Amino acid sequence: MDMVKMGSFLAELRKERNLSQAELGEKLGVTNKTVSRWETGTYMPPVEMLEELSNMYDMTINELLSGKKLSTEEYKEMAETNIKETLKVSAFSIKEKQEFYKRKWLKDHVTLLIFVGICIIGVAIAGIVIRNAWVSYISLLMLVVAHCWRNNTMMAYVESKIFDAA
Fold it and tell me: How far is it, in rounded angstroms, from Cα 84 to Cα 78?
């Protein structure tokens, strides 16, 4: 899918109906800058806007994505290609979603993590002060358990957000 070609086609369709970018934007509830970005191929219109544009211009979404009016044979050819390309452009990858939700979980739990860290450091210092090796070993065990807990709960959160949301 050629976004520049699609954008030029959208501009052509708008001009055929004697609409300015501002007028089209007003009809769709977006700014003229947004319309300009679509028409230059900088951004792709979201699905709901593609539907509005297809109704407004009496075209199929497939034709809008292809950047031209399509014959019956071309329509069938382009349908699958356009769907695949649209999904690539509009969707985050699983890796991007994982990173986003990991950062979100860490941000939401930062105070708890700091508290657990302070407790572990406190136990380690207490072991050193009272000169008891077992207390120091317990702090190492607490560190391992805290790390496992953090990793497991964070990944359970990430997986639920990515896979259960659909």
Answer: 10
**pLDDT tens track for 83-96:** 767 666 655 667 77
pLDDT in tens, 41-56: 888 888 788 888 989 9
Tokens of 54: 């297809």
Helices (H), the chain: 3-16, 21-28, 32-40, 47-57, 61-66, 72-90, 94-108, 110-129, 133-159
Q: DSSP letter string over 122-160?
A: HHHHHHHHTT-HHHHHHHHHHHHHHHHHHHHHHHHHHHI
